[in-house]
Amino acid sequence: MLIVVSIFCSPALLGSPMFLFLTVLSFLEACFSSAITPKMIVDSICERKTISYKGYMIQLFAEQFLAGAEVIVLLVMAYDRYVAICKPLRYSSIMNWRLCGILVGVS
């Protein structure tokens, strides 16, 4: 969450698509950690380590959904770097804010 706050507080970093993708990736990682960690902490403290089927399915869905979204954001970041390296003169016209918004929305 520190990465998200520092990018939003710095106006120079906010204008780059790469930092937008980095913010989304950091936010997804924070959500991923908060979906898995609480049950692990409770299980390490308590003697009885059970989970209901509904709770298990919710935790599994959250884990798979957020991990898939992270992979898509990493793929988008790789595409952004590909365009920046291979087509540097057309980078700003290819990676406009509309396309960045669509790519983040897909993830």
TrEMBL record:
- Its source organism is Sciurus carolinensis
- The principal location of this protein is membrane
One GO cellular component term of this record is: membrane
**Would the keyword Zinc-finger be found if you checked this record's keyword annotation?**
no
Domain G-protein coupled receptors family 1 profile per the UniProt entry, residue ranges: 1-107
Task: Report TM segments.
Answer: 12-36, 56-79
Q: Which UniProt keywords apply?
A: G-protein coupled receptor, Membrane, Receptor, Transducer, Transmembrane, Transmembrane helix
This protein's name: Olfactory receptor 4C15
Which Gene Ontology MF annotations are present? G protein-coupled receptor activity
Entry-linked Pfam families: 7tm_1 (PF00001)
Lipid bilayer topology: Multi-pass membrane protein
| Source domain of life | Eukaryota
